[in-house]
């Protein structure tokens, strides 16, 4: 009774172990690579053996096919006294090997060039035979071409349509390689309509074409894909008309539209914006720039930019509110944006309005308040009003409290006593906090430590703000 149970357990264990392997084999398509016929003036015996072996190895590397071992294939072939194996005989051998497909064919060598013609025969439907080709410039290139051939055979077995070739038509100025570099569809890859749609978008994004069509043609080698493009015209000439206040070179430096480049409307509009910025940086806020594109023929166009400069905008008045503790005159002294001073106008740009200068002025005002003890001062965004050739600026300040120094102490690696260090700084307890003075004190202390050999002394203020 015990022996019976042991045998039953062993049988069940073997079934459990073997079934997964059987399942994996059943999932894979079984392929047998038969000998190839050779055609050449020279001795091709070595290639007649090597080609099927290398092809079988490459097919096995795909991981999708179960390739019948080479010795088993040769053993079956040798059982038949056949001088040549045609499609009908290949089916017989394939069925004996329980293969779903057999691969055979011919190798032809003319001069140094080698060509392989492979037949992919379905053993249960010989009428569904397909062909795959490969050509190598010489024997040294055969290994690579066999890898490509194995990929094509794999695709044919699983009814995957391959891309046989990718062509372009209609491109005159843009080279074919530039278009192919931008896309994912490649010769030898699996054909995908979805990838083609993405390629269409990629080519449009190049910015060189106003129309793109895709045509496909199914051939024995696979799908031939053609991108039919209609290029945008080439720029023949670019003119800038009406610039008197700004030099032509300064405008051309910021432009992307140039002669002998593809016309791109986005770049033309960008040039308008970039040239406008050049003028605005010089206070010409009334600048108006338009463009005209004139076709010369089907392939070329000219681009003209017309400029109406207007006058530079001057600062008419700068006013403040909220500055209860600091007079407007003191704030104006730290600013670049101010009403024109006729005496200094010959040497400075003050009086003309600039956006970036006003932004820096807001930072300067905040820094000035900080230096005067207003540690929580807030300078709001300025209000700017244009009236013709004049601009009016209003700045609102939230001063907050003015802080004084409550106490002053020194901590860390002290090489001097506190009283000596206090004598070397100008900040004193009870005085209004002064950011500039504090900075001067730090410089003085670093110089003091440096004189004693501490060139890299780190001296930092630790402030504790209390209401």
| Arrangement of strands in the largest sheet | 2-1-3-4-5
Radius of gyration over alpha carbons?
Answer: 42 Å
pLDDT < 50 stretches: 1-26, 342-348
- What distance lies between the first and last C-alpha atoms, to the nearest angstrom? 96 Å
CATH level 4 superfamily of the largest domain? TolB, N-terminal domain
Identify the CATH class of the largest domain: Alpha Beta
| Beta-strand residue fraction | 25-35%
| Main sheet properties | 5 strands, mixed
Q: Could you please say which CATH topology of the largest domain applies here?
A: Rossmann fold
Q: Please tally the helical runs, counting DSSP H or I stretches of 4 or more residues.
A: 13
The count of β-strands is 15
Instruction: Provide the structure class.
Output: alpha/beta
Number of domains: 5
Q: Could you report the average pLDDT, rounded to the nearest whole number? A: 85
Assign an overall shape.
Answer: elongated
Query: Helix and strand string, N-terminal first?
Result: HEHEHHEEEHEHHEEEHHEEEHHEEEHH
Helix content: 25-40%
Which architecture of the largest domain would the CATH scheme give at its second level? 3-Layer(aba) Sandwich
């Amino acid at each position: 009774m015990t022996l019976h149970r042991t045998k039953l357990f062993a049988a069940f264990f073997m079934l459990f172990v073997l079934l997964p392997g059987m399942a994996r084999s059943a999932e894979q398509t079984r392929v047998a690579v038969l000998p190839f016929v050779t055609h050449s003036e020279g001795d091709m015996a070595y290639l007649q053996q090597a080609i099927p072996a290398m092809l079988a190895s490459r097919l096995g590397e795909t991981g999708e096919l179960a390739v019948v071992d080479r010795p088993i294939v040769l053993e079956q072939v040798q059982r038949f006294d056949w001088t040549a194996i045609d499609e009908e005989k290949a089916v017989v051998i394939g069925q004996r090997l329980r293969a779903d497909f057999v691969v055979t064919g011919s190798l032809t060598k003319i001069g140094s060039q080698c060509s392989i013609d492979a037949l992919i025969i379905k053993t249960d439907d010989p009428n569904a035979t397909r062909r795959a080709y490969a050509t190598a410039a010489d024997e040294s290139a055969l290994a690579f071409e066999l890898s490509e051939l194995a990929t094509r055979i794999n695709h044919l077995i699983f009814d995957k349509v391959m891309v046989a070739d990718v062509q372009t038509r209609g491109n005159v100025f843009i080279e074919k390689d530039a278009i192919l570099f931008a896309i994912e569809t490649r010769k030898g890859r699996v054909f995908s309509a979805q990838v083609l749609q993405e390629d269409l978008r990629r080519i449009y994004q190049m910015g060189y074409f106003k129309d793109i069509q895709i045509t496909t043609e199914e051939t024995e080698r696979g799908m031939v894909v053609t991108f039919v493009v209609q290029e945008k015209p080439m720029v023949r000439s670019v003119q800038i008309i009406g610039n008197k206040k700004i030099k032509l070179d300064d405008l051309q430096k910021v432009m992307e539209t140039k002669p002998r480049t593809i016309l791109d409307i986005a770049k033309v509009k960008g040039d308008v914006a970039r040239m406008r910025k050049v003028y605005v940086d010089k206070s010409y806020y009334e600048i108006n720039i338009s463009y005209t594109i004139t076709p010369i023929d089907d392939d070329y166009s000219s681009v003209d930019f017309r400029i109406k400069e207007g006058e530079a905008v001057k600062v008419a008045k700068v006013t403040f509110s909220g500055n209860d503790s600091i007079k407007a005159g003191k704030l104006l002294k730290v600013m670049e944006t101010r009403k024109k001073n006729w005496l200094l106008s010959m040497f400075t740009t003050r009086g003309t309005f600039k956006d970036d200068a006003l932004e820096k002025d807001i930072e300067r005002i905040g820094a000035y308040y900080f230096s005067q003890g207003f540690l929580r001062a807030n300078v709001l965004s300025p209000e700017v009003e244009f009236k013709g050739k004049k601009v009016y600026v209003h700045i609102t300040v939230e001063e907050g409290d003015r802080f004084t120094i409550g106490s002053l102490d020194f901590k860390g690696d002290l090489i001097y006593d506190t009283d000596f260090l206090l004598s070397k700084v100008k900040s004193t307890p009870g005085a209004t906090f002064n950011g500039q003075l504090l900075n001067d004190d730090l410089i003085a202390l670093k110089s003091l430590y440096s004189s004693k050999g501490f060139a890299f002394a780190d001296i930092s203020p630790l402030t504790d703000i209390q209401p």
